[in-house]
Amino acid sequence: MKHLFYSLFFLMLCLCSCTSKDNSIDADGNPTYDTNTQTDTLTTHLKPFREDLPTIGLLMYNGVLTTEVTASADVFTKATEDGKQLFNVITITETTDPIITEEGLTMVGDYSFKNAPKLDVLFVPSAYDMYSQVHNENIVAFIRERDKETQYTVSNCAGAQLIGESGIADGKKIVTWIGGGEQLQKDYPKLLVQDEYEVTYMEDGKYISSNGNLASYITALELVEKMTSPEHRKFVESYLYLDRLQDWKKGE
Question: Which of 73, 79, 109, 59 is nearest to 216 (CA)?
Answer without folding.
Answer: 73
